[in-house]
Specification:
By secondary structure, the chain is α+β, with helices and mostly antiparallel strands. It folds into 2 domains: 49 residues, no CATH class; 96 residues, Dihydrodipicolinate Reductase, domain 2 (2-Layer Sandwich). Strands 1-4-3-2 form a 4-stranded mixed sheet, with helices on one face. A hairpin with a 5-residue loop joins strand 3 and strand 4. The protein is globular and about 60 Å long. The mean pLDDT is 91.
C-alpha cells in the first residue's frame, strides 16, 4: 500500500490482533520451534527493496556473561556461519554482498548495555540459497554422516 522503491516498509503480511504482522508472528514461532520453546522473540519485520537477501538486527540476552570476543570465536567455529566484523567503513556485510553464498554472515557484534549479558549483531543471508531447502539438505547430510552405518 506504500511506495517500496527507495523506501522501507515496516509491514509484511497481515496485521494480527496484538499489532504484530503474520511475518513477525511466524518469525517468533519458527525461532522457538528450531531453538527452544522458552526463547522470547520480539521482531519488527521490514520489507526493503533488494533483489535477494534477508537481514536482521538481533539483540540477544544470555543467561551467563559473554564477551564480544567469545561470541565472535563461537560463531566463527560454527559450520555455515561467516563472521565479517571490523569496526570501520565496509567492515560489515550487506544482503547484496551475500548473493549466491550458502553461509549466513554475522557483523557488527557488540555489547548491548540495556540488558544483563546482552549482545547485538547484524545477520544477513541469501534467502534464495539459505532457506528451507538448503537447510533440509544440510540437516539430512549431517544425519547421514553421524547416524548411518559406514560400510
Amino acid at each position: 500500500t506504500k511506495q517500496i522503491a527507495f523506501n522501507v516498509i515496516p509491514h509484511i503480511d497481515n496485521f494480527m490482533d496484538d499489532g504484530a504482522t503474520r511475518e513477525e508472528w511466524k518469525m517468533s514461532v519458527e525461532t522457538r520451534k528450531i531453538l527452544a520453546p522458552e526463547i522470547a522473540v520480539h521482531a519488527t519485520c521490514v520489507r526493503v527493496p533488494v533483489f535477494v537477501g534477508h537481514g536482521e538486527a538481533v539483540n540477544i540476552e544470555f543467561e551467563k556473561p559473554i564477551t564480544v570476543e567469545e561470541a565472535r570465536k563461537a560463531m566463527k567455529n560454527f559450520p555455515g556461519v561467516s563472521v565479517v566484523d571490523y569496526r570501520q567503513d565496509e567492515g560489515y556485510v550487506t544482503p547484496q554482498e551475500v548473493q549466491g553464498e550458502d553461509n549466513v554472515f554475522i557483523s557488527r557484534v557488540r555489547k548491548d548495555p540495556t540488558v544483563a549479558n546482552g549482545l547485538s549483531l547484524w545477520c544477513v543471508g541469501d534467502n534464495l540459497r539459505k532457506g528451507a531447502a538448503l537447510n533440509a539438505v544440510q540437516i539430512a547430510e549431517k544425519l547421514v554422516a553421524e547416524f548411518l552405518p559406514k560400510k
